[in-house]
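Hey all, sorry for the wall of text incoming. These are the two entities for the joint prediction.
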Amino acid sequence: MPIRNVVYRQREAGQVLTDLSDYRRAGGYEALRTALTEMDRDETVYAFVRSGLRGRGGAGFPMGRKASFIPKDSVLPAYVVCNADESEPGTFKDRELMETNPFQLLEGITLAGYAIGAVRGYIYIRGEYEHQARILDAAIAQARTAGFLGQGVAGSGFDFDITLYRGAGAYICGEETALLESLEGKRGQPRLKPPFPAVAGLYASPTLINNVETLSALPAIIEHGADWYASMGTEKSTGTKLFSISGHVMKPGNYEIVLHDTTLRELVYDIAGGFRPGREFAAAWVGGSSVNVLGPESLDTPLDYESMAEAGSSLGSAGCIVMDDSGSIVRATLRLAQFYRHESCGKCTPCREGTLWLERILQRIVDGEGRMEDLELIESLAGRMVGRVLCALADTGVLPVTSAVRRFRDDFVHAIENGGVPRPEPMMEVPVGG
Amino acid sequence: MADYAPVDLTAEGQVEFELNGRRVSAPAGTMLVDAAYALGVEVPIFCYEPRLGAPIGACRMCLVEIEGMRGLQTACSTPVQPDMVVRTNSDIAKDGQDGVLEFLLENHPLDCPVCDKGGECPLQDRTFRFGPGRTRFVEAKRHFPKPLDLSSVIALDRERCISCYRCVRFSQDVAEDKALVMQERGAAAEIATLTGDQYEGRFTGNVIDICPVGALTSIPYRFTARPWDVTNTPSICGHDATGTNVELTLREGHVARVTARPEPNYAVEEGWLSDLSRFAYEGNRAPDRLTAPLIRDDGRVKEASLDDAVDAAALVLGRGGRVGILVGPTATVEEGFLAQELARTALGGARIQRLGIPGAGLDAIRSQPRAELGDIDGAGLVVIVGGDPPNQQSIVELRVRKARRRGAAVITVGPRPHALEPVGTAVRSEPGRLAAAIAALDLPEAASTIVLWDEADLAAEPDAAGALARIVGDRGASQIELGADVNGAGLRALGLGAGDVLEAAAAGEIDTLLTIHADPLDGPGAADWGWALGRVRARIAIAAYASAVTDASTVVIPAATHYETDGVYVSMTGRAQRLRPGATAPAGAAPGWELLIALAHRLGAPPPYRSAARAFAAAAAARPALAGLDYDVIGVLGAPVAAVTPVSPNGVNGPREAAGTGLPLVTTTRIFGNAAAHRSEALASVRTGAELVLNPAEGERLGIADGARARLRSPHGECILAVRLAADHPAGAAFATTGVPGAGVERLLPADRGPVNVEIEAP
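and here's what came out:
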């Protein structure tokens, strides 16, 4: 099994690390001590750069480069913001980190804060993660008591604290500028960029925003060295990656694997246990739902950033949703279109109106009122959204729709010619009451 | 509307770039949309509105192609860059515009035939110019019940809304009333108030002007006219001294609507109107409007023709008695000048005064360098002394808020709480002790300082006016007078004083009184005027509205209002601007300047001109303050009158003690608590009455409970008011609302609005 638990230190330790003493016994806070006593800020940023760590939230932007964009001469305070608004469909890897290994995240945020000279870190956690928020709150309190947060972190001259902020339940708040708006107490909607958050982010101050997994990887990078981290994977896809796999597989769940060492086939069949008897792989949305859907011909693609791009999709958040041949790709596509319509914030026209229109067309096709020209219309509308919207929601949200229409065109044609898509048979009788 | 920001194509620091194959240049930092517009290329927009602050890039209408950049860029948020190659009309750019319009129209109801915006709708116009000819949307459109009343004057049709956020940004970022928000999200997004209450405030109507579709429409104007049935005339608001530039929509002789001008006057109102400026026009046809000339003879009143009334007036005035002429604060420069000419020629020896504040001690501060309202934006420090600009010179509030947003320090000093106090540092002065508060001010350093000062407050405290003049002079600051009267500055420019007639009438030296837009019995000093006018034998009134004066006049000649006449008003910042008639006066009324010329003819001293323009030219030739001005020079945006001759603050500016005993009276005003607001049905739900506000401690001391009534008595007169106890008002003063028709607070005051104390007791 190509599982390699680096970020999932709790799995390696074989226990949840929600108690500070347990986390320290598992090697926790050694990295922070090392950085504070042996490395200056630039060296810390440079270690992040050399590690090759890419943002794990979905966009895959090199984390170290992002940290290096923070201006050093700003008169405004700098902030680290942890994006814990884990909302991408099929993605639940950060939840486990926050539930079972919260101190590693706090240590990662503190390391990032030290590296960019921040005065405070914020964790923006999705509103639905109430349980996880409680765990993080307790962890922050413990870290503060133990001197890992507050005035003079771990006996150094570095002052830093972390504030937890709960969102109110909107996918768009995972978009970094919408997150900042929400964190500032405003309506969660993306901002016009530039300026980018590194220059004018939270309260118009320099801000480094990273995903939970990205920040949780920092302690291991400092502890074991950037070279060690970069030695895993490929040149452009270094280190390990958490995959959430869900859908028709027998063993859905989170798995940490070294990038490039595993193919989609191995992930689906070997790690996640394949499908129910008699069922075949039909489709997979590997990087959460905001990616091009892949068919069986892509099963031997190695799981890393470049290979997924080459296969015509993207690694995204690595929330891998897998479908076997028992379901309808047309209906699944409608469901995703409904999601993006529901989550569009409405600020910019092409997304607000386009996501609604796409959903309506797909609904007609499913309902048996589709027309052949609708398939061209979908392409045309998507073309008028991509690259013309304010943020990535619609830019990437149209991908599962357009890619499905292209890759599974026969399914759509079949639905249009044969009166739609019948309601699926329930997989099992669900007992009522009890 | 003001859609695109003005661009100076001749400014220093131009950037050269290519626009649709042309080599062009624009100042560095200019947004591409504005540069293109100035260069004759219209890039369509909806959400962009430079007056609302930084662009938000929401509507995506302004997509253009920029060589070397991926996809299409929003021209509203892209500053011009050297050598950038921009195409606004390439196939891909057109596809961008086409696409956004197709998306916008997807849920737009296309009920244009019954939409008030139809014919003057940016969405309609831009669809016609830039949009697709047909839609591919075959589904059912979004439906909402329509329309909702966002307030008593604004209808919200949510189906038509294209979520451009202009109204929300106006409320949040310009008026800062924080009332309007976008609710729900995605295609279900809709405009609403945060609290669910009506959208009420001093500036709400501006959202109607800036709405690029028919989502927000004016309830008073709805369904009254189509754009091709009306004519629009640029004019000036006649309801405060700011000189707010407006546009009058005229239909069948009546004012159907008042809006901001399509091209705002950036030096004055910047295209933002107060709701008083916008909705008071309905009072132009109020029941108390005078529409037929009246002649009183032996107690009988009969209607007469205009000719007969002017004849009768000439007869009374020409009888040879001692004549006094009273010019009211809404009279135009022409009317004031023609009245002066009457007094000089036909009625030689007549005494004449304007109705207003004498302000003898104000020349020192008035002669300091003047600023325009537009200069407030760029000030480093804004000091507001006295007054209550949000209620009296409302648009000043928006300028001060804008200055604060841009980083200016704001300091307010004065005896009464007002809405600009929380914007900066508020210093509360004791009544009658402004001079002490000014002396104690610790003003921060600033590159540029603008001092705004209240005419009435400082006229009542000449020592404070002197102290302030010294501060303005020492700092090299500039000043803006918060004027009390609509055309006070214009009448002062004519050299009209403000005390002569009252004195003479009180002494029994006036036999016949001619009032021109003047109603002394309803203004400050009403009690003193009442006594003095009792000694006058005959009265002639040229007036637009019925009043105690017209009720007691021998001859009443209805006059046109400022909506109906040509004329010049001089704003409180010294800007001469033209009124243009947007409506026709009632058949039995005529513009005051015409009536005064006719009167001069009847009295045998015809002036050598027969038009308002010529009358103004004659005034400009005769009065140094107006030198060099004529209607052409004033043009559409106005021109400054001459500066006041410098006067040293030393000398006349001694302290002045309040008359009477009891608590010092601090007068207050409310934007919707004046005759204009009370006449307009559109403002019925926001208009306010008069009250006496006391600190709860004062209430306890006087034994007067909240909600009770109290009698106020000064050496001049008395009145009865409802009492409100409010902890945010300091003890040691009585706050009473002036300006409310029929409330009589003015009776407490002397005619020069000087300081008084009042005794308060249960009635």
